[in-house]
Amino acid sequence: MTIRICLAGATGWAGSALALAIAKSDDITLVSAVSRTQAGRILGDVLNEPLLNCPIYASAQEALAHSCDVFFEFTKPDVAKSNVLAALEQGAQVVIGTSGLTEADYTEIAAAAEQRQLGVLAVGNFALTVVLLQKFAEIAARYIPQWEIIDYAEDGKKDAPSGTARELAYRLSNIRPSELTIPLEQTQGAIETRGARLTGSQVHSIRLPGYTISAEIIFGMPDQKLSIRHDSGSSAQPYVDGALLAIRKVNTIVGLRRGLDTVLDL
Ligand SMILES: NC(=O)c1ccc[n+]([C@@H]2O[C@H](COP(=O)([O-])OP(=O)(O)OC[C@H]3O[C@@H](n4cnc5c(N)ncnc54)[C@H](OP(=O)(O)O)[C@@H]3O)[C@@H](O)[C@H]2O)c1
After folding, report:
1. Is any ligand 1 atom within 6 A of the Cβ of residue 161?
2. Cβ(224) to ligand 1 under 6 A?
3. What is the pLDDT of residues 178-201, one digit of tens each?
4. pTM for this prediction
């Protein structure tokens, strides 16, 4: 059985690396792709890979006219939710790699997935070291009631916090909210310096030249601290491996799941 994919963002940094990996796989095939600037062309001509003979469309709605099993979202947060809802409407399972969707977006997507009895796997970061960071942090949060999350990225990254930090905060909220010794409203000085309160965690986003993507969580107890940190390099390879796994696993779920570990046996 071949899994037929519609890939939105197939010409981007992450999407093109995924498309090239799909070309090499024998159980996944691309049937359509989305990119505004390359619409009307064949993906293989754009990526210089003759095995990718699928057409490119300017919108997900057009690309979804080709029947597919899985819609893969790798564009930008401003169009991601409507792309995902359009894919569910067409009866496709969905993998979301795009970061920057809000909790309200996920609530709407979860309701649509439940209603259609389809699986949506949203993964803020496909890298295995991030998947493990999330898992280790969940264990730590059961024992240590206070933590803060720091997300680091290059200065040109527009969305903040990162999908990785957002997903981590969301997951920890299922365990408990991080305790604050001094309530935020009692902060003396500039309250913004305490970061944003996001689903029960304080999150701080650093955007500076010189960074790629890193995520860190610091747990603090009297006289002891625990830091867990992921640093990514500059290639898209760690994301590609996780994305292929997500494509192969999304048909095993119904409704919205967040995080790659939800389909792994960790
Ligand atoms: N989950 C993970 O592990 C992971 C890993 C890497 C990246 N990401 C996230 O994935 C997203 C893409 O990242 P990237 O670095 O690949 O970005 P990118 O290089 O800018 O690529 C974006 C892709 O989406 C297309 N696109 C953008 N806006 C669009 C629109 N309005 N309609 C249709 N197509 C559109 C672009 O083509 P056109 O400009 O031609 O339309 C391009 O193909 C980001 O949200 C990023 O944070 C997640």
Report:
1. no
2. no
3. 999 999 999 999 999 999 999 999
4. 0.87
